[in-house]
Amino acid sequence: MHHSTDRHISNLTKDTYALVLAGGRGSRLYELTDSRAKPAVYFGGKFRIIDFPLSNCINSGINRVGIATQYKSHSLIRHISRGWGSFKAKEFVEVLPASQQNGEDWYVGTADAVYQNMDIIQSHNPKYVLVLSGDHVYRMDYGTLIAEHVANNADMTVCCLEAATEEAAGSFGVLTVNAKNKVMAFDEKPEQPNEVPGKPGTCLASMGNYLFNADFLFNQLLKDDGTEGSTHDFGHDIIPSIIKENDVYAYAFKDPDSENQPYWRDVGTLDSFWEANMELVSPEPQLDLYDKAWPIWTYQEQLPPAKFIFDNDERRGMALDSTVSGGCIISGSTIRKSLLYSSVHVHSYSLIEESVLLHESDVGENCKLKRVILDSKCNVPAGLTIGHDKEQDIANGFRVTDKGVTLVTRSMLKALEKKSN
């Protein structure tokens, strides 16, 4: 019996086209997204955020994927073309930049991003269209979602997770469903979210992932395009306008074995970005990047292995409770509870604690870093202490978050160098 359901799901995923919305500005990441879109932000030692939804597609058997990009998309497009361009002819990951195909606008809202690419999607003739947010880190088998959508005879299915009402208030779309998970109401970022019956303090929050029957989607997009005053957004406009007349269902994202909430992170703020990276260096993180059954694919340079040098009492190159990527050289310094991305060089007598060092950064001798996010290609001058004295960090021109994490970028270090000369 088991095999026929597997085959049923693989037929459904073959009939699906996935569109990843990767235009996000990610403004709450401040200088971390000055030069890159949020989906291109690095995560977990060697990945970028967009690798997670893309890997979910490939691992789920969805082999036709479009990526709608707009804001600062250069590094994202380069990453996709290097790392995701080598599939067979019928399988592809294609980049769909906001090219003002229908009219003069960039992508206005989430629905408009799909509408502007409607011709391209229709040319692949899918039965189902899966619209995904490119901003979140999680692992999910979309096959079970599509199977449930078909079993419900749904027009649209909204992926959601159970969230604490105070967390969801003002930041997520919230669904109200009946006993069969049919959506009865949808509120975009409400101040007072409706609670899940029998679960006080929790509500159903939309993940920003939507599955549609293709024809139904195209009809709704055409209708929405002609609607005066629409913001052309799924959460704001389309979902509220269709729930009365059509069959819209909620799909709860749950771990099939334990019914627990699986790992899902919106690394949309500097604090949440730092916390999610820090979780990965704990001994048994909830996100297992070592699971061979569900690999996370990415583009990575061919780099030599990480190297640790010097072993005497004055200086010893070592890393404890840390993740160190290829190409790193730890030279007579101590790394504790930190994540080092590719090709980071830390020089002697330095101490790095609870920090996230992005690729190709270089830390001079006698530096002390604690709870720091160091952007890529930074050169930290010898003798600098960061993250130990908030007032000093602010005076040095670094950004300190509410939770006391310090962001350091190349331009901040250049400004500091000018000031001290």
UniProtKB/TrEMBL annotation:
GO terms for molecular function: nucleotidyltransferase activity. Alpha-D-glucose 1-phosphate binds at residues 107, 173, 188-189, 206. Transmembrane segments: none annotated. Coiled coil: none annotated. Residues 18-280 form the Nucleotidyl transferase domain. The record marks 70, 106 as: Could play a key role in the communication between the regulatory and the substrate sites. Its EC number is 2.7.7.27. InterPro entries: ADP-Glc_PPase, ADP_Glu_pyroP_CS, GlgC_bac, GlmU/GlgC-like_hexapep, NTP_transferase_dom, Nucleotide-diphossugar_trans, Trimer_LpxA-like_sf. It is an enzyme of class 2 (transferase). Pathway: Glycan biosynthesis; glycogen biosynthesis. Keywords: ATP-binding, Carbohydrate metabolism, Glycogen biosynthesis, Glycogen metabolism, Nucleotide-binding, Nucleotidyltransferase, Transferase. It catalyses: alpha-D-glucose 1-phosphate + ATP + H(+) = ADP-alpha-D-glucose + diphosphate. Pfam families: Hexapep_GlmU, NTP_transferase. Residues 304-408 form the Glucose-1-phosphate adenylyltransferase/Bifunctional protein GlmU-like C-terminal hexapeptide domain. Involved in the biosynthesis of ADP-glucose, a building block required for the elongation reactions to produce glycogen. Catalyzes the reaction between ATP and alpha-D-glucose 1-phosphate (G1P) to produce pyrophosphate and ADP-Glc. Belongs to the bacterial/plant glucose-1-phosphate adenylyltransferase family. Homotetramer. PANTHER family: GLUCOSE-1-PHOSPHATE ADENYLYLTRANSFERASE (PTHR43523:SF2), GLUCOSE-1-PHOSPHATE ADENYLYLTRANSFERASE-RELATED (PTHR43523). This is Glucose-1-phosphate adenylyltransferase.
